[in-house]
Amino acid sequence: MSTIESASPSSTESASPSSAGTGAARTARSPWAGTASAEELARWRGVAEAVAEQLRPGALERDRTGDPRAALEVLRASGLANLVVPAENGGHGAHWETAFEVIRTVSRADASLGQILGYHYLNQACVAFYGDPDGRERWYRASAERNLFWSDAFNPVSPDLSFTADGDGYLLNGVKRFATGAAATDVVISGAIAEGGRHDGELVVFALDSRRAGVEHPDDWDHLGQRASASGSIRFTDVRITEADVIGVDREEPFAALVTPGVQLLLANVYLAGAQGALEQARELVLARSNAWFLSGVERYADDPTVHRVLGELVAQTAAVEALADRLARRFDEAVALGAATTEADRGRIEVEIAALKVASTRAALEVTNRVFEVTGASATANRIGLDLFWRNVRTYTLHDPVDYKSIEVGAHFLDGRLQPVSLYT
């Protein structure tokens, strides 16, 4: 029995999408409540920092090989895979504020791993965003028991998948690009509009074993940065999807649509981590230099006032983004706690606030990861040092979706309260 097949609810127990929007199920749509305590944050900060220290030395090698699988086992062993799974379903029951800090901490050591981990949390959470309470309990418990890592094939700019009725199930066909983590994780979540059958015309959200028959990973990720994120394409050829694989149906509810601001908050935290990681390594490199520029009038680079000025500007810029990211991580907890009571206005407010962070984190990360070379010097461009990894990762990942449109979103809302159409980018 394959991993996800053994984890899926049985056909007779599977979530009934039609019940998700009615009765008592609606009052319990969100499994998250309240905000993180200082004790919770400290506990998981310690775990994440220990994991980051273990993973940091191998970041350059993973960048060269593009293989994150051994590192994911380190994350799995740490307990981080079950961080936001509710305690009553076998997880640790942590809050999103904690999760985003964990993502940022891991990303400072290796942004590719932070990206995979962040998508794991949000894809795993889709069982709550799209499923009903009974169905999500079975999915969560099965995932927690097996320490499963989740990925997705949701890229909206790729052609839609074919999802055609076949007997009492469906056949899935098509290709999705930028399926981050799919080749290295256990579960792939995706969605498609059903043609025929029980869900005819509905956008069905489902999950399946990443190694199920008919699923192929072409290993075609060959980009400037985020090289160990396993973000290549995924191909489905007559993959059988049964009701046991169905998480729910996308009914365009504001609560379910919160997953997109969550993804944008993930991106911003990875960008911020790139700036922080570059500054940490730049500090080490500057302090290790024993000489100084001949016109500086000092003996060490670390005493050069021009070095102080550049680093001061970059540190201040990064600190401002960090403060905003921390505030919005807590705001996201408050937003998802509304559950079925979430309104379009609630969802719109958190989206615009996170869009502003996306703009600020993009600008800061690109500037910091570029300008640290001004104070570390030509020797810091050596491949063995790997300071360029932060810039390559940030430059690649900040192209996820055009940041100019985030600026437009923020500006339009500032002027007259306008909101952009809800999508997997806004």
From TrEMBL:
Residues 1-34 are annotated as: Disordered. Residues 42-142 form the Acyl-CoA dehydrogenase/oxidase N-terminal domain. Its main location: cytoplasm. Residues 163-239 form the Acyl-CoA oxidase/dehydrogenase middle domain. It is an enzyme of class 1 (oxidoreductase). GO terms for biological process: L-leucine catabolic process. One of its GO terms (molecular function) is 3-methylbutanoyl-CoA dehydrogenase activity. It catalyses: dibenzothiophene + FMNH2 + O2 = dibenzothiophene 5-oxide + FMN + H2O + H(+); dibenzothiophene 5-oxide + FMNH2 + O2 = dibenzothiophene 5,5-dioxide + FMN + H2O + H(+); dibenzothiophene + 2 FMNH2 + 2 O2 = dibenzothiophene 5,5-dioxide + 2 FMN + 2 H2O + 2 H(+). Residues 267-402 form the Acyl-CoA dehydrogenase C-terminal domain. InterPro entries: Acyl-CoA_DH_C (IPR013107), Acyl-CoA_Oxase/DH_mid-dom (IPR006091), Acyl-CoA_Oxase/DH_mid-dom_sf (IPR046373), AcylCo_DH-like_C (IPR036250), AcylCoA_DH/ox_N (IPR013786), AcylCoA_DH/ox_N_sf (IPR037069), AcylCoA_DH/oxidase_NM_dom_sf (IPR009100). Residues 1-30 have a biased composition (Low complexity). Its EC number is 1.14.14.21. One of its GO terms (cellular component) is cytoplasm. Keywords: Flavoprotein, FMN, Monooxygenase, Nucleotide-binding, Oxidoreductase. It is found in: Cytoplasm. Pathway: Sulfur metabolism; dibenzothiophene degradation. Belongs to the DszC flavin monooxygenase family. This is Dibenzothiophene monooxygenase. It comes from Protaetiibacter intestinalis.
